[in-house]
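ESCALATION

Customer reports they have been waiting on this structure for their group meeting. Please prioritize. Original submission:
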Amino acid sequence: MAATRMRDLIAGDRLDQYELTEFLARSGMASIFKAIDHATGATVALKIPPLHYESDIAFYQRFEREEKIGQRLEHPNVVRVLKPEKKSRMYLVMEFAEGRSLRAVMKERRRLPVDEALRLARQICSALVYLHAQGIVHRDLKPDNVIIGDDGQIKLLDFGIAMDESARRLTWFGLSAPVGTPDYMAPEQVRGRRGDARTDVYALGTILYEMITAALPFAAPSGQSMMRAKLNEDPRPPSEIVPDLDPKVQETILRAIERSPRERYATAKEMLDDLEDPSRVVLRDRSRTEQPLLARIRISRRVVGPGLLTVVIGALLLLTWAMGRTSPRSGGAAPAVDTESHPGR
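Update from on-call: job pushed to the front of the queue and completed.
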């Protein structure tokens, strides 16, 4: 067994009470290892950032916040963050969640049956209801961060950019920029805002759309074009891809991914109620939805431009007419010319 050294770790190394047995994945700016906790005998997962990040104050604070958030949470659909006896360097210890990511399942099976997609969405939404009650907004909800166990139970993980509404805001450079994954980011995140519970609702609506259709609400070739589409385009109704989709399920999805947070579900609990009982969903008239930003600008140019020209022309005509009628003498006669002040006349 290799001893712990101040270097980036690999499977076979020992870190405090943990023996790293298998490299699992790379998540953002950290590596995930399967490990044995020699203090308890339990199998756990360790999230270990590269060694050079330990000197990055902003990263350290964010990583520390992720650990503190995780250790507060206790819910069957949220991965637990554990507390080691001691820590000789920066890392995070989590319960080991057996199963596969929702991303892997979707990649293999493409579209999921609607009933199965709704069952998974209800579990995710239940976790969000709990998180939001704790003042936590995940902000990076996506299929990669959802683990599905062999028993069908899901667990949310990765609170690396989660927001704790009760804590002070981190303002180090780079932490106030837009955060998230473009495919699942809400429009307000694209604009660089912090987001709130409705930001997670938007991400869940996008995930549900993708589970049912095997597509995203906006077709875009890059992350930048995806973010522009979220600000300026309407999503493609999922029924265009799945024609027999229940209109009330479609309404639930479209309400969750409304461009304006005011038009979305106000809380995850409201969305959960509709997921649990689609019959209660009220269909909206979407024929007069708010026009995208660019469309409003184009319309303004078309309307304001000609309109302004008409006003100017009208003002000039009115001024000409007024000057023709105005005279210092009565009767509107043309003003006299003072010939003495104009020699040569």
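Sent to customer with the following note: The two ends are 116 Å apart (CA to CA).
Escalation resolved.
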